[in-house]
Structures are given as structure tokens and as C-alpha cells.
Design goal:
The chain has helices at 2-21, 26-50, 83-114, 139-142, 163-172, 197-229, 237-265; strands at 127-128, 137-138, 143-148, 152-157, 179-182, 187-191. It is α+β, with helices and mostly antiparallel strands. It has three domains: 2-39, no CATH class; 81-105 and 196-265, Ribosome-recycling factor (Topoisomerase I, Chain A, domain 4, Orthogonal Bundle), CATH 1.10.132; 126-191, Gyrase A, domain 2 (2-Layer Sandwich). Strand 3 and strand 4 (152-157) form a beta hairpin. Helix 1 runs antiparallel to helix 2 (26-50) and helix 3 (83-114) packs antiparallel against helix 6 (197-229). The longest helix is centred in the C-terminal third of the chain and has 33 residues, at 197-229. Pfam families: RRF.
Length: 267
């Protein structure tokens, strides 16, 4: 394009010179032509400097927009190609994971007691039934639990009438070798004895019960999905197989938690 403009400018100048030579005012015409040519050249040079280079646009497929693939899950890592079934699978996996975490927390509390570590979490399983309440309460909702002399838990309640109900709940929880003792109108002392070998054996039995409860909850989560979609062995083999693998993996995690707890309690 620039070459064409240059040629046109040159042709114009030559034509103007010839015309100027054939007139009586050739000196004046020649000066005017030269001035015009110089001004035209400066203008074109300035325009070339100001115009930025044109970059080719990056265009995707026709009718599409650029899409980030950062959050896409590779098909090789998905259990199902169908989004709805995959969503159910992910949801079930999350629920099963919560059952595993529950077993891990409970087993850790038992292990702590087995090695002589006393913490308020020992009373986490206690549920208190109050006459005027719609549901049972945790002790932490009715008062505070503190430590004293290494192996004593002190329960300080917010109301006097909570005392007898909390005592009854601690007994009902059947925590091995744990006996509540009323100190005053709002205070209960719970002495945690040093664990004996027999006590550790009982704690190991408790850990096994916790693990079995977690396994039951994991299977229930799988069964709920199967019932929802009415999957049958002959027609929905892929779905049933994938969910069974998920169950097996989560139960394996529970078994590992139990094995670790038993190992700690056997020391």
C-alpha cells in the first residue's frame, strides 16, 4: 500500500512539473508543486509512525468462546461419564468420608484414654436428657468441663437442676471405670482412673464397635443410592460395581483406623 502511494505521489509531481514548465509563471508553479510534495511526504510519514501494527486476532471455532479447562475433570479420573450419576457418586463418597472421620475421632479418644491421657473429649459421647427439652444435650451445652490434678474432670453446670440429669447421663454412657461424684449444687467431679490392662481391652472392644458402626453407615449410604435409582445386577452392572469399589475403599480406611487404635491400646 505504501509503495502505491509513493508511486502516485511521484507521478503527480512529474506531471505538475511538466505543466509548470509550459506556463509563463513556471517559477511560481514549480515552487508550489515542491511545497505540496514535501507536505504530502511529511504527512504520510507521520501517519505511518502513528498507526500501530495490526495483530491477527486469535479466533476459536466458529460461534464459540474461549473456555478454561482448568476445572475440568479428566475422563480417566471419573467413575461415570454421565454427570448426574457422577454427582451422586461424589456425594456418596463425601458422606462415607464423614463416617470414616467420625470413627477416627472416636478411636482417637479411646486411644487417649488407653494411654492415660485425660481430656474433656472423654465425655463427648454423653447425652443428657432434660424433662423440658425436645432433644438430648451434650454436657458442653449445659456447662463447662475443666481439668484438675491430671486425671480429674470438673463439670460446672449453669443451673442447679442440671446436676442429677448429668450424673444419670454419665452413668448411662457406661464409660469404663468412670464414676461421677457430686461436689456441690452445680459441680460434678469425674475421676478418670489410670488404665489397667483390662481397661485397655475394654477400650479396644469399644473401638471395634465404633468401626462396625462406621461400616454400617457407609453401606447404608450406598444402599440409599441404589434404591433411589432402582439399579439391578443384570442391567446396571457398571454402576453397582463402581459404588461397591467406593464402599470397599472407605471400609478399608475404617479398618486401618481400627488397626492403629488396637496397636496403640496393646502397648
Amino acid at each position: 500500500m505504501l509503495s502505491t502511494l509513493a508511486l502516485s505521489r511521484t507521478a503527480f509531481v512529474r506531471t505538475s512539473l511538466r505543466a509548470a514548465q509550459g506556463t509563463s509563471n513556471s517559477g511560481l508553479s514549480l515552487a508550489l508543486v515542491r511545497a505540496y510534495a514535501k507536505a504530502s511526504k511529511n504527512k504520510n510519514n507521520k501517519k505511518e509512525k502513528e498507526e500501530p501494527p495490526v495483530r491477527p486476532e486469535k479466533v476459536g471455532p466458529k460461534g464459540s468462546h474461549a473456555t478454561s479447562t482448568a476445572n475440568l475433570i479428566p475422563s480417566s479420573k471419573r467413575a461415570f461419564q454421565d454427570d448426574l450419576t457422577q454427582a451422586e457418586y461424589d456425594n456418596a463418597s463425601t458422606k462415607m468420608g464423614l463416617s470414616v472421620e467420625w470413627s477416627r475421632k472416636e478411636a482417637a479418644a479411646l486411644t487417649a484414654r488407653g494411654v492415660g491421657l485425660v481430656t474433656p473429649s472423654i465425655l463427648d459421647s454423653v447425652r443428657v436428657s432434660l424433662p423440658d427439652a425436645d432433644k438430648d444435650s451434650r454436657i458442653q451445652e449445659l456447662g463447662t468441663i475443666g481439668m484438675r490434678e491430671g486425671n480429674n474432670l470438673i463439670i460446672t453446670l449453669f443451673e442447679d437442676h442440671y446436676v442429677k440429669h448429668v450424673e444419670k447421663a454419665v452413668y448411662a454412657a457406661k464409660i469404663p471405670n468412670v464414676v461421677p461424684q457430686k461436689v456441690d449444687a452445680r459441680t460434678i467431679k469425674v475421676v478418670i482412673p489410670k488404665p489397667t490392662m483390662e481397661a485397655r481391652t475394654q477400650l479396644a472392644v469399644g473401638a471395634a464397635k465404633i468401626a462396625e458402626e462406621a461400616r454400617i453407615q457407609i453401606r447404608k449410604t450406598r444402599d440409599a443410592v441404589v434404591r433411589k435409582y432402582k439399579w439391578k445386577p443384570r442391567t446396571d452392572e457398571v454402576e453397582l460395581e463402581q459404588f461397591q469399589k467406593l464402599v470397599d475403599n472407605r471400609i478399608k480406611e475404617v479398618d486401618q483406623v481400627l488397626a492403629k487404635a488396637k496397636q496403640e491400646l496393646a502397648k
